Amino acid sequence: RYMNPLKLISMTLLATCLTSGIYAGDDTPRELPDKQNFHVFLLAGQSNMAGRGDLTEADPEVNPRVLMLVKDGTWQPAMDPVHYDKKIAGVGLARTFSAELLKHDPDITIGLVPSAIGGSPIATWEPGAYHEKTDTHPYDDAIARAKRAMQDGTLHGILWHQGEGDSGEQKSAVYKEKLLELVARFRADLDAPDVPFIIGQLGQFEGKPWSPGRQRVNQAHIEVAQEILNGGFVSSDGLTDKGDLTHFSTKSLIEFGRRYAEVYLQVASDKP
Q: Does the predicted TM-score (pTM) go above 0.85?
């Protein structure tokens, strides 16, 4: 698909713009931590990574050591919604994930790079692919944002939650192959061959039994996490939906973020 020139210009500016600090809503730049202590995490996948939890249940406390890359390419203190893929973006798992990591290392600052796109099948996570419902290029946008973030910090992990859009018979049959290709592509394009890649399990919601296709996607998640270097798999056992049989509740997203952190820390500790 032909890319709108304005879209291309916007992406180019995002990938190349420089900022020397954090903007706390008053246009006053504040100094960023040094690059080695600024740990960047790319958040990719579908709506459950973007977060659809109830914003009235969001944690109002701002941690100055958890930042998020906002739409204009500057850093802001992380608040829900971290993502902006759709107007319904809500509480996600990333802030809890970050808080858990900070407990283990008091010297770091976390930089979150929101790139998940609600409703995006894995076929849209390829170079040049277009997701019409959100007028985005999920993979290209994620790479541009990650590279922008890596001007200021170091990439320490990619968090992935996706697969609901690939649970049909035909798409699920090729899902594992596409996911392996995606992991390799991310690592190559970001020059991060051994960066941890953490995969979250799809929701197991009472009242919505898994189809054979969803079972295949689940098995692909498990196998890819086992087969790739520095891969991790995060269980969704016991987590509940927000009432729509699709999206995790705020309480479950908080727990999911804790589990993502636990798996990430284990993978990072085992990393050669």
A: yes
